[in-house]
Amino acid sequence: MSIKDKLNDWIQNNEQRYIDFLQKLVQQPSTQGNEKGVQQLVANFLHELGLKVEMWDLDGDRLKKHPYFYSNRETFESSPNVVGVLKGTGGGKSIILNGHVDVVPEGDHKQWDHGPYSGKVIDGKMFGRGATDMKGGNIALLMAIEAIQALHIRLKGDVIFQSVVEEESGGAGTLDTILQGYKADAAIIPEPTNMKIFPKQQGSKWFRIIVTGRTAHGGTPYLGVSAIDKAFIVNEHVKELEKTRNDRITDPLYDTIPVPVPINIGSMNGGDWPSSVPDVVQLEGRIGIAPGETMEEVQQEMEDWIKTLSEIDPWFQEHPVKVEWFGARWVPGEIETDHPFVASLVNNFVSVMGEKPTLVASPWGTDGGLLSQVAETPTVVFGPGITDLAHFPNEAIELEKIFEAAKIIAATIVEWCEED
Amino acid sequence: MSIKDKLNDWIQNNEQRYIDFLQKLVQQPSTQGNEKGVQQLVANFLHELGLKVEMWDLDGDRLKKHPYFYSNRETFESSPNVVGVLKGTGGGKSIILNGHVDVVPEGDHKQWDHGPYSGKVIDGKMFGRGATDMKGGNIALLMAIEAIQALHIRLKGDVIFQSVVEEESGGAGTLDTILQGYKADAAIIPEPTNMKIFPKQQGSKWFRIIVTGRTAHGGTPYLGVSAIDKAFIVNEHVKELEKTRNDRITDPLYDTIPVPVPINIGSMNGGDWPSSVPDVVQLEGRIGIAPGETMEEVQQEMEDWIKTLSEIDPWFQEHPVKVEWFGARWVPGEIETDHPFVASLVNNFVSVMGEKPTLVASPWGTDGGLLSQVAETPTVVFGPGITDLAHFPNEAIELEKIFEAAKIIAATIVEWCEED
């Protein structure tokens, strides 16, 4: 029997234990600030697996000095990362297996059929906040590691399992693993991709645009200048920038994606009195950042483009539109599509699933960007969760997919890190 | 000496008494709900003049049954109207002299050089909230009445002086004088017109427009439909309606007015998350109503026009744009430009001022609309206050203009009501 067949067998024979453990993890709420409980479960599990375990509260002092740090908080008491290392024998390529345990708020409880942390299993699906995004994915990683341990497979390269916090809040967890010293030759993050393989992941940054008008009484609006009318000109101008930025993208990985790096205006608020001409409008949105771009060059491009508004409308010369940057950034991530690690993952996918995987660029960011750009660890995003259910009520994951992902990942780890 | 010369003389010799009384009125704050104090001063003054005085708290029960009632309150304890009548001998045309005593809030006290209710006189100007809008105008009316009394001029028609509340809040004061039974053959309201004569006054009504989109994640906005983009289309569509409505207006009274009946979008609010496609946008604004139009036909025209959006964009077929009506209405007012009352006012203006008056359509509403449409009392708006200072800090009025207005109005009353 090949190693891969043995791994598959082992995984198949240990499904129930992992369903039970996933249920425990899902039933342990872990919104921002409340991660300690679930991380303790993970740390104990890793201990049992015989990994070298490290658990530490994120270090706000060192984080806030880093240009890529973002969070809505600066101290992280009782919000720990957990890292478990399966040391290699040496001379092999290392791998990071990264998954977050923090979950987004559960929202309106009345919209959950079974309560937000039920962990209930119905028809092969497990329900609960975090099941798909992304505790189910983390389970796939742990199954892969235990399968390797159980089969006494000794690898040359290190296997570094990272259970992080703060992914939903800006990436401080993964960033602090990097500041703690962890990097590797490749990484997988099993975010909910519907089993698609994302060699590239879009980054993003939030912006605020402020448009100024001049007030007047609503009975004589021609004495004023409507900031709403001007904001629509700005809206159109931003659409042109989106077109320019996207016309540049030729990578076939984006062939099925209408707009690889969109610019979304998410909100527009201006004026406060029906009988007055509005004199200020604020737009807030998100600009997509392509792999290979830096945040700084994208910000500069947008600011320069906004300045050209004065050529379109003289009002903007005396009343320049302001651009501000705020909120979380998502660093774009990438690994070359023909990278040997990707090739290995793809082959193993075909073996396990009996069909080719879909390789596509991801429209949303993950901590993969930080691993790619800051830790210089090429990262692929691939996982069993159901993308469209993430962040919604009645979030769920198909258990079968977790086991398929575990098999694919286990085989890929063994190939990458090389048997001794 | 002609009657008019005598009236002018009397007014000139009694300026200080009226400056003093105006100061008392201005120094008596009279924001909404706090009008009793100033109305008591007015009622006493009318008693002294020998008029038949009526003072009553507005009747919320009868008001709320009236389709033209609007206020942010339904009960009016301690908020009285005051009416003083100089009975005519009979067989003459009557006149209503209407002025409000309620004032808008004073705003940020720090922006007032002398405090919002100072009544201070500097270089021929009196400062204070209400001085220009419109206690100074009311003083001109009272001077005219007392001049007529003092000169023992007996008139055939009734002179009905109305000191009302709630003008700034929707007109319930004047409406309740109508429900109390008061109407006349003509009326003057000395709102602050900079001594211009407004034979027509714009009405208005507030509307709310709700535009629907479809949400999606900001990384894949093409899966959604931006309610902001759709609101832009609606904005342009509303501008077309404004053009259509204004192209109809040919009255030379509007020759100097760029847009006689504007449609102002005063506020726009939509979306709440930079990383989401906005799925609802709310616009609020004010539509101008021309004299001769009813509120109902204007509302119908706008609703019908909004429905035609489905011809422009199929999205609106499945997701119709909603129009709602809310807030205060201002009924448009008018008197024919060649009405004998206007002719008399114009002649007297020329006599007193030595130059022709400016006749123009007013861009804002007054209680003149209610008098015109509900009481069938043709109304002209003409007064000594400074339009641009109304509602602002450091509101002020030129005292000289009050006396000029008093002379013009006194002569007009005598001509209209006819000496016995």
UniProtKB/TrEMBL annotation, chains A, B:
Cofactor(s), names only, from the UniProt record: Zn(2+); Co(2+)
SUPFAM superfamilies: Bacterial exopeptidase dimerisation domain, Zn-dependent exopeptidases
Domain Peptidase M20 dimerisation span(s) in chain numbering: 201-310
This protein's record includes keyword Hydrolase: yes
Gene Ontology MF: a single term: hydrolase activity
Claim: Disulfide bond is one of the keywords in the record: no
Pfam families: M20_dimer, Peptidase_M20
This protein's UniProt keywords: Cobalt, Hydrolase, Metal-binding, Zinc
Family classification: Belongs to the peptidase M20A family.
Name assigned to this protein: 4-acetamidobutyryl-CoA deacetylase
